[in-house]
Amino acid sequence: MGDAGPPAELDAAVGAIALVDHHVHPALAAELSRGEFEELITESDRPVPPGTTRFDSQLGVAVRRWCGPVLGLPASAPAPAYLDRRRELGAAEVARRLLRAAGLAHLLIDTGYLRDGMLGLAAMAEAAGSGVAEVVRLESVAEQAIVAGDGSAAGFAERFRAALWERTTSACGVKSIAAYRFGLDLDPRPPAAAEVAGAAGGWRRQIDAAGPAGPIRVTDPVLLRLLLWAGVDRGLPVQIHTGFGDPDVDLRRSDPLLLRGFCELTQERAVPLMLLHCYPYHRQAGYLAHAYPHVYLDVGLAINHVGARAAAVVAESLELAPFGKVLFSSDAWGPPELHYLGALLWRRATAGVLGSWVESGDWAVADAIRVAEMIGARNARRVYRLP
Ligand SMILES: [Zn+2]
């Protein structure tokens, strides 16, 4: 970016985009202690060393710098003042202010992982002043279907498919967290019926052995393949977690390039594969989006966590990936600060990166504005068939 910053026209146009956040979770409207708040501004679920704080991170600095003013504080007020102001306003008002300030037209909400105090779909629409649509998690539907079998795994595959079709009548997409449950190094082919029956029986026995309080988590790679292929059969865009996430994910096994075989085998089905997050493999994801007509990507989640470095990640996401294949997402989960920052940091990064290309003479300002609007909203409207 030159000294003058991005052209004012581009800055204004990017600021005015009514964004479609194509992968986001509900916001929490609950009072949070300092400890609880700090646990929610990191992807780590482990404690920090004594004498350090989560506020000393790119995301922590961004919360104080950018969210403070939305709550009526000076920019970069100290963390204790920020948390006091949060309490003073109340969690519902904090959520309303931050969600409104994000400038969102539509939220595509993953409802697969919830906690107490989270807003429901209608409350999210109300607080954000936006449209909402649901994305259904394949693993959640499978976990309900195995339990619905009256203690038997017989007919699991059929029960799962019926439940998936019923659960998604008004959904705009489905989502796979196979990266969390096994890794993306799966056999890309659809599993045979006999393999599925064997794997479902094994899962059922595990559930029985764990007892009524035990976890019900689908982790068998055969079943995860069944879920992914059922998602393709359902015909809605299939979101797939790749790259960065909490330590439950083995980052080495979440490289989207591991999905190359699946991309090959699903291409003729023409069902969009939406690679989520991708960082630090967003260049690999960009290659897949370049190579395969049905592959798309976002760099959500990372943008919040890299904060002032968001422009670097956004720039790298715009190398090989065709611009019609890149989508905006916040991947916010919990504090509405994450919903706001996802939008704000994306706008700053996008205006900065595209603006630098205008200033260097590589791009026309009209192209920069058009591409920003595609990534911010139009691509998602087309792929998810939003009104
Ligand atoms: Zn997510």
What does this molecule look like?
The structure is a single chain. The protein has a 7-stranded parallel sheet. The model has no long low-confidence stretch (mean pLDDT 96). The chain is globular and about 60 Å long. The two termini are 35 Å apart. With 387 residues, it is an alpha/beta fold. It contains 17 helices and 7 strands. It is 49% helix and 10% strand. The longest helix is centred in the C-terminal third of the chain and has 24 residues. Helix 5 packs parallel to helix 16. Bound molecules: zinc ion. Zinc ion binds next to loops.
Entry keywords:
binds zinc ion; 10% strand; 17 helices; single chain; 7-stranded parallel beta sheet; 387 residues; alpha/beta
Topology:
Layout: H1 8-15, E1 19-24, H2 34-39, H3 58-70, H4 79-89, H5 91-101, E2 104-110, H6 121-128, E3 131-137, H7 138-147, H8 156-167, E4 173-176, H9 178-181, H10 193-210, H11 221-234, E5 238-242, H12 260-266, E6 273-277, H13 282-291, E7 295-297, H14 302-306, H15 310-317, H16 336-359, H17 365-383
Parallel strand pairs: 1-2, 2-3, 3-4, 4-5, 5-6, 6-7
Helix pairs in contact: 1-16, 1-17, 3-16, 5-16, 7-8, 8-11, 15-16, 16-17
Bound molecules: zinc ion (ZN).
Query: Strand count, sense and closure of the main sheet?
Result: 7 strands, parallel
Portion of residues within helices:
40-55%
Structural class: alpha/beta
Rg over alpha carbons: 21 Å
Taking pLDDT < 50 over at least 5 consecutive residues as the criterion, the unreliable ranges are none
* Hetero groups: zinc ion
Gap between N and C termini, in Å?
A: 35 Å
Average pLDDT over all residues: 96
User: Beta-strand level of the residues, as a percent range?
Assistant: 5-15%
Total of DSSP H or I helical runs spanning 4+ residues:
17
Principal-axis shape:
globular
Number of strands: 7
Order of helices and strands: HEHHHHEHEHHEHHHEHEHEHHHH
Instruction: Enumerate the strands of the largest sheet in spatial order, edge to edge or round the barrel.
Output: 1-2-3-4-5-6-7
